[in-house]
Design brief:
Arc Repressor Mutant, subunit A, Chorismate lyase, six-stranded antiparallel beta sheet, two-stranded antiparallel ribbon
């Protein structure tokens, strides 16, 4: 496979899975050269093909932006095509002391202060997911200045921290939620649903966000991301 095709497929995967999300400024040509250990000519050819395919938009003097993404890395899409919009209801937003599980996921000390956000995701008017998120170095006041109803969480975090964020769904497992959670996500009481865990990192690989989501497993499909290290094209 030609080098530009490897770069093209890798960037396309990040966009399709949602780690690089709509409107996001992707790394510069020089940064991409370092990430993939290839020449600038190779990067430019890959970006040109990505633009032609409709995945990115290149703006002179500003950089290359993700034009479209097929799914959010923690969110799920119906296995049936739907025109229903995705929105979020914020139930709780506050600073909390990280318990041992959150501290381990974010690689911080126990009881260190983090932002805690509890949300319900809707497809149209129907609730389909119960989501809890913990973030480092972000205050409730910072997060509340953004459109929490419509904007994706990773986009918000990226804007606040002014850095790229990579997302990885680390586990997808079955769970029987408590009945009150089943009621929220319109699932039958004591029924098996899907539990997703995500840990997101900055460009230096430092965890900055941990999310777990309980999702109604009827008619949904999941995408698990496995990111490629800059010195490898294969991954899992």
């Amino acid at each position: 496979m030609f080098k530009h095709s490897v770069v093209y497929n890798s960037i396309k995967e990040k966009i399709v899975i949602g780690g690089w999300y709509e409107g996001m400024l992707i790394p510069s040509e020089s940064q991409l050269c370092e990430m993939y250990d290839v020449s600038r000519i190779t990067i430019r050819r890959a970006l040109k093909e990505l633009e032609y395919s409709g995945f990115v938009k290149r703006i002179q003097g500003k950089g290359t932006f993700v034009k479209a993404s097929n799914r959010d890395p923690i969110e799920v899409s119906s296995s049936h095509e739907s025109e229903d919009s995705i929105t979020y209801e914020v139930v709780e937003c506050k600073s909390v002391a990280a318990d041992s599980v959150v501290a381990r996921k974010l690689q911080i000390g126990d009881f260190e202060e983090v932002l805690y956000l509890r949300r319900i995701r809707y497809r149209g008017n129907v609730a389909e997911a119960y989501i809890e998120t913990w973030c480092t170095s972000i205050s409730p006041n910072q997060i509340k200045t953004h459109d929490l109803k419509n904007e994706k969480m990773l986009n918000i975090i990226s804007n606040i921290k002014n850095e790229l964020i990579d997302a990885s769904v680390s586990t997808v497992s079955p769970i029987i939620p408590e009945d009150w959670v089943c009621k929220i996500i319109n699932a039958k009481p004591s029924s098996a649903q899907a539990l997703l865990n995500r840990v997101s990192t900055n460009t230096e690989g430092v965890p900055c966000e941990y999310t777990k989501a309980i999702i109604n497993s009827d008619d949904v499909e999941f995408a698990i991301s496995s990111w490629i290290k800059k010195d490898s094209y294969k991954g899992i």
